[in-house]
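Re: weekly structure request thread

Next one in the queue (571 aa):
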Amino acid sequence: MLGLSILIGVLDGLGLAMFLPLLQMADGSSGVSSEEMGSMSFIVDGIVNLGIELNIKTALLFMFGFFTLKGIVYYASLKFNVRILQFFVSSMRIKLTDLFTRYSFRSFVSSDVGRIQNAMTGEVARVSNAYSYFASSVQNLIMVMVYLSFVFLVDWKFALLVCVGGGLSNLFFSRLFKKTKEQSVALSKNNSGFQGLIIQYIANFKYLKATGFIKSYAQRLKEKIKDVEGNNTQIGFLGAKISALREPILIGIVCIVILIQVEFLGGQLASIMISLLFFYRALSALMIFQDSYNNYLSVSGSLENIIDFEQELKNNIEIRGEVAISRFEKEIKVENIDFGYKEVDGILKQLNLTIPKNKTIAFVGESGSGKTTLVNLLGGLLRPNKGEVFIDNIPFKELNMDTYQSRIGYITQEPVIFNDTIYNNITLWAAPTQENILRYENALQQASLLQYISELPQQGETLLGNNGVNLSGGQKQRVSIARELFKDIDILILDEATSALDSETEKEIQTNIDQIKGDYTILIIAHRLSTIRNADKVYMMDKGEVIGEGSFEELYKSSEKFKRMVELQEL
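Done, posted below.
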């Protein structure tokens, strides 16, 4: 890119240099003198040495040739820049996607979701603009240097005076550039805050609307919008000031330099005119450079934000072992594990338990007892602070977590529904081969969805809408169950999977789960104890510790706390 920029400037300079012979011939001179061209006399001398008579026709022909070559190279440069920009943007997005894929869940739960979304979407777009502006700045700075080099070759005194004046003017512009960068950093921060508020605004719309708090929350959003507007306005004002003042200042410098050159240094007007042609080109490139550089500074805050975000992702990459598994074969064993997001949290304390393959295990206890945290550990989302989790005698630190988690199905209280067709929601965009269609229909049958979907006009191609708006709560859960069964899993995690359903739907879902009991290792977190009556073992948890275990009946007899929970739910 830099090489092409230099070549464009050189070809343009050679074309402009042909104006001096034309000016001499326009004065009626019988010949062309190369003396007034200073160190650029090599152009005229070179043409004469080739045996070519230098007249108006040949001078115009050479000028046309130089500018034609410049146009060809300029076109190649533009195409090359397009390719580089697109490669840069796609590489950045792919890199962030790969890093975020390996971002640890432990770090994610305490992260700023608004910042993540802003970095992955808005900031990436602004950084791509930053690259374009930066590339334009570099290219035009090179053009300035090339043109000034030609000015030095023609008349070094004139060039030196212009450079001194330009350097002094840049001290003024540097202050404006600094203010622009400060506003850009503030804009990036406010954009992240705005994205966070928008995410919560949409996610909690129903609650905000139902409670009448939506106007108050909207006011917070409006204040953040005004902050963003203020940053953009200041950046715009600074850009306008630079654009308005730049040309008068530079032209004023040129006028002073010409006056000094003619009045005091005895400069020749013809050489000054050619120098002015080069300087005008340099001036145009300089103006574009200053515009581009100021625009670059206006989005440089996004660049810094992306760099910080990338570093944060790198610092919190999930550690993956090398031992891969194809299936879950024997048991999950937990030995003396402690866990807390901070060491002092103590969410789980000195836990020991064993979960055999194809057994149904339930975890009960009050909110905050550590049930979900424990299941997140068992599923590989979290790593213990102390102790170890073993999968078929392989410790987490040695286990390739991707291969393990590919054997896990996960169903939560709020089912994950994609804005796509039923088929794609269940198969996760698997190709509709005969084998996949057979697995898909089998999963529908196991989840009691086959009849419902067969009655729909578009059947499996029915769009479910945003977050499954076209489905009932029970249907969403069945879609979730069908998805996990389609995946060919060994372990199924049910995290409060039926607590938000009505009793009849809950019973139907429970029947579906009971039908697959013994075929999968099922881990259930439940507040509704009716859903765990048939579990092989129930663990009673309190303040991060297991305080009782056994079958439903055994625990009912041995644990007063569990017994009270059962009686309160009138089971």
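The beta strands are 331-339, 348-356, 360-364, 386-391, 394-395, 408-412, 491-495, 521-525, 537-542, 545-550. The two ends are 76 Å apart (CA to CA).
Next request, please.
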